[in-house]
Amino acid sequence: MPATSPTTWDGQRETLFDLAEMDHYNRWIYEILRPFLGLRILEIGCGTGNITRYLADHGHVCAADVNDSYLNAARKNLKPFRNICYRRINLEKSLQPLKVFKPDSVVCVNVLEHLLDDRQPLSECLKLLPGGGHLLLFVPALQGLYGSMDKSYGHYRRYSRIELADKVVRAGFNLVTCHYLNLPGVPGWWLNGKILGRQIIPKNQMLLYDHFVPVIRRLEAHLPLPLGLSLFCAAYKPAIPYLSPGAELT
Question: Of all helices (H) and strands (E), which one includes residue 204?
Fold first, then answer.
């Protein structure tokens, strides 16, 4: 997404700042990521650093984003951390300049839905990782929920489990898991985005919801969900590279 000027209202930026106060929710995302993280983590689409602070407790982090104002906010918010480097990148172009960081994990939290072409970035991520390195994705789920807030945030789509898994596998990754989460968030998104036509999630609703996250976490940890507001996908790069039909090793 293009960077915005300081005088332009940025609903996504406002929501990112509101999300920074959702400690339970942010830690929930990190705890889902944690079992698959290595020690050199590339976070693509770091935003203002809401998840980055948790990743930095785990290992070295390269925080990347296309939006300069978000990166500047992340630098300010995470100034005490000395194990984070920052890079401006455009996912619609080559990610190979990031290869010097030598990541063993690539994390994308609510990023792919902002890209018209979401297949090329997955292939680029495959090139960045060593054999056994993990790709970890969070994306919005259920296209039927697509509404005014998705448009305001610059979403091109919401995903089904089958669609996301298929795209990850076709990019050359081996799938570990792809599952729904955050079922209680579905009614709120439907009401705000499909019925009330709001542009962003109201902050008071977000903070209220955050109080219930510990209970939701415990319940969803033991109950397989048929659907949810989000999807989490974990996959790894095989030691032997994927070859499309008719391709040859070079």
Answer: helix 203-220
84, 53 in Cβ contact below 8 A? Answer: no
Print burial letters for 48-57: b (CB count within 10 Å at least 16), e (below 16): bbbbbbbbbe
Does residue 126 sit in helix, strand or coil?
helix
Report d(CA 6, CA 67) in Å as an integer.
Answer: 12
Cα–Cα dist 40/58, whole Å: 9
Whether pLDDT at 151 is above 60: yes
What's the pLDDT tens digit per position in 84-133?
999 999 888 889 899 999 999 999 999 999 999 999 999 999 999 999 99
User: 65, 45 in Cβ contact below 8 A?
Assistant: yes
- The full set of domains in the chain, from first to last, is 11-236 (3.40.50.150)
Residue owning tokens 């259920």: 142
